[in-house]
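tl;dr need the bound structure. longer version: we got a ligand (adenosine monophosphate) that a collaborator sent over and nobodys looked at where it sits. i said id run it. heres the input, straight from their email, havent touched it
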Amino acid sequence: MEIKKKIEQLREELRQHNYKYYVQDQPSISDYEFDQKLKELAELELKHPAYNDPNSPTKRVGGQVTKNFPTVVHENRMYSLSNSYSKEDLIDWEKRISKIVDGPIEYVCELKYDGASISLTYENAELKQAVTRGDGTQGDEVTANIKTIKSVPLKLKGDHIPEKFDIRGEIILPYEGFSKMNQERLENGEEPYANPRNTASGSLKLQDSAEVAKRPLECLLYNIAGENLPFETQLESLQKAHDWGFKVPPHYQLAASIDEVLEYVNYWNEERFQLPYETDGVVIKVNNLYQQEELGYTAKSPRWAMAYKFKAEQVSTVLDEITYQVGRTGAITPVANLQPVQLAGTTVKRASLHNADQIEKLDIREKDCVFVEKGGEIIPKIVGVDFSKRPLGSEPTNYLSHCPECSTKLVRKEGEALHFCPNTSSCPPQVTGRIQHFISRKAMDIEGLGGETVALLVKENLINNYADLYTLEKEQILPLERMAEKSAQNLIDGIEKSKQVSFERVLFALGIRYVGETVAKKLAREFTSIDRLINASFEDLVKVDEIGDRIAESLIQFFAVDKNIEIINRLKSYGVQMQLTDDTKNKTSEKLKGLSFVISGVFTQLSRKELKDLIEQNGGKNTSSISKKTNYLVAGDQMGPSKKEKAEKLGVEMISEEQFLNMLK
Ligand code: AMP
Ligand code: ZN
């Protein structure tokens, strides 16, 4: 009884903190404290599976993998909206509906969030299921993924909650989170995602819910459907939804006439750029729910609602010149240098041109008058050319053929959109960029050395690659600009200290294309040393969980370059970690000799694969099903009840991840 109380209390506490943080944007405790409490709860739940709760805050980390999302019929159909684009459209609409309903009509204006629509079903104040819009009649059930979105309440609070109802909303990805995701992709040499909306909607159907949990998605709610609802207007419904714990953006407003609606539209047409997420219009809804009922639906949309689409803010200006940037991985990005122009409240001088195909498709040329649009992306983009203003004698753009920095001929692999400069060893931005990546926080984290100093060291020819860092001497750097005795010493000390950095991070620091932090960790655990990784064949590589053709190919290519091997050997000779040390790998003990294990569920510290590897490396044996011969069942989150029953019946001991790791200590 005590335990049950403790578990419930922790859940309630975490729920409240979660609400304050993600719905109200007002954190009430530190992330650290939150994590500690979450961990405590996870451990209690593991030890006491009888008190399992599918809507416990611990379920938000994800881990459930869905191969096929079941199709579910919407109990209340999900309609689309009719569109309007002008005052006249709205006045026509008002005329139409005034003929159907009696009395004055009031409207609620809301913003139209640009994401993926979702329908959440709640029963007895708990989230039951989440279904995508699909064709409006039926969609895909994506509950496990939706549970990882922190602003979706798993349990509701407050009064007058209907026993059962659907609530509709939009899953969106705020600009900030979106651009962070893209930055990471660029750092890993991957193509950035095109826009927040597609990324949000793609996230709903990811198979691994732990991946969804990592994305900073949010859920904004705007409509409740069901029977015997405790309100009579749309306005009240939004207020109730807010009271029950849903994230309802506060920008909605009551309007007594179409003129007031237009005021709202005009205001937000400008102000929307200050919002942290994308909106593409306003939705106008008849406020009174009895009037809504009278108005009913056409085949496709409610008669009681209307979308008013914002015009994408667009301006035209002259494209002076197309220049090209070379990134750390050698990727070339074309940039449009524009005559400065005001757009959505900022002065725009540059716009992204994406790649060669895009330039060709739109037939963009220097000196053209181009249309520039600010959409979801932070950097504006060119959406077309005003051909009527094309200067005489203009020539189609010849995409750059040689690197602007080192004149090497560019290459473009089949199926890839980007051109690359293959001169990885001496193309200046690549040289600098790679060293900057090497020293960065998540990589070698070299104290006392920053990106600008790296650029300076390269410029002064003191270093050419990251191995050169380890032969730097204080006397060489002292004469540099803004370098004093103390800062020079710090730099040398920082470099020395980096020899302690673990192999997994060294591997990430090498800057191999597609080898991000997670992949580096996987590879390090699997191959344990750089030599074994270098000698691994393509087949060896793709056998590893989550290592696909693309990553394998990239590794093979990297190690095929003599210069890279030479640098690696130098790093090794200076004492940089090129293999896992004993405490990171726990390798090859006999501690589990003769013991047989079954792994089940989802784990927090290690992946299933890593657990299995540990068992084998320590002399134990993995089996897939429980039998009398099984010694231990290592039980994670979401373990099936049948496994547990069987273990109990056969008297097999169940242990947690924690307890298992303790066995190895
Ligand atoms: P459309 O896809 O253009 O037919 O627009 C209809 C969609 O707009 C709905 O399915 C919702 O996903 C979305 N939407 C965004 N914000 C709102 C809102 N405040 N009220 C209703 N629908 C909205
Ligand atoms: Zn180059």
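gonna send this back to them w/ a short note. The first strand starts at residue 71 and ends at 73.
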